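input
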Amino acid sequence: MTGIAKLIPPYLRNSSVYYALVTDLNGNYTYVNPLFQNRYSFVCDDFIGKPSFIAIYEGDQLECLKTVEACLRDIDSIQFVQLRKPNTSLEDFYWTDWEFSVLKDENNAPVGIFCLGKDATEFELAKKTAVKLTEKIELIIEEMTDGFYVLDPNWDIVRVNSVAALSLGFTRESMLYRNIWNLFPDSYVSNYQKYFYKAVNEKIVLSFEDYRPDLEKWFSVVCYPSDEGLSVFFKDITVTKNYLKKIIEQEQALDSIYQSTTDACTFVDKDFIIRYNNQVARDVTKLVFGREAQIGDSSVEFFLPEFKDEFIGYYHQVLQGERISVERFDGKRWWLFSLFPVYCKGQKVSGIANVVQDITPRKEIELKMLSQNNILREIAWQQSHELRSPVSNIMALLKLLKDDDTASELQKLEYVNHLSTSVMRLDDVIRAIVQRANDM
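output
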């Protein structure tokens, strides 16, 4: 064992964790422990007498030299330095952490530099991975369309992306390290305070929607508590809210129209499922089938059995773009069914509008008028056929009585008898016509 080696404690000479080595004042190795020799044997078989720079990455050699000079300026100091060691790959390194101090002999005179080090490669690689991951996360946060900011336990904003700053009307710099409750007036963040405090105090994830009158915007907010504070994601949903408001207003207006009509209005989708029906439609189904048709019911359940196949066929025709209008009698009432295709964007048929009207009063009038027309036709036929014959006979007999001066009394009596028969026949025809007229 060399004299230098004797100056190294045995636990460091035999360490399986720490590198222990000594260089002379000219920077040449005078001692290396087995751990160092074995790890870097690919550099050289024997480090003793070799310059220490052979096992130090070129880019760190100047830093190493500065650290040695700092030790020599203060021989009782311990200097820390991180050095990269060459790896078996020319594109990679071993990372190592070192403590340099002056090694002294028994006379307290400097005889070299004692270097105690350990491998920090895994830590450095983990740190580099963490840095890359953090950079990636920062990039994702910055590029995402949601606003994002982080509050520390004191409610100070410690991270914010540009979407959040823009949505809230600030720059990122003006928001960072500002207390959120001071950044916004209390009257506008009271709901946020309630949810944020609840999330932090109860350690739960909360989502909510809130309107900011100062910004005239709606936001959808999700907040995630942690030991470091509160992470907040939010999205500007003002446009969506305005669309929903408009849709609701339109639906209410449309529903008011549908509920005000006396027609039974139903909308069914392409699977014949009821998606809308007004109260009149519900009343009609209850009247005919004993129960109201509800949204989500199959409309086929509300077809009369004798018309079921017929109307399923009509529905398929309507889904192809046809418009159909039919009248049907259920045994008690007459109904008019008007079936229309309903189009969505792109002119695609999305369903069927079924408008049903009770036309019983109209049909009764029509049927009565039809019956009256038939009677009038019969009366007209009687007038043109049955009435003409006795009238003609009467006219002829009267002419004979008037003009035949040579007729005997017996012939005249015969004329009168024939005239009486024709008059009676005429009276029968007139009575029949009056009776038919009374039946109208």
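quick obs: The two ends are 142 Å apart (CA to CA).
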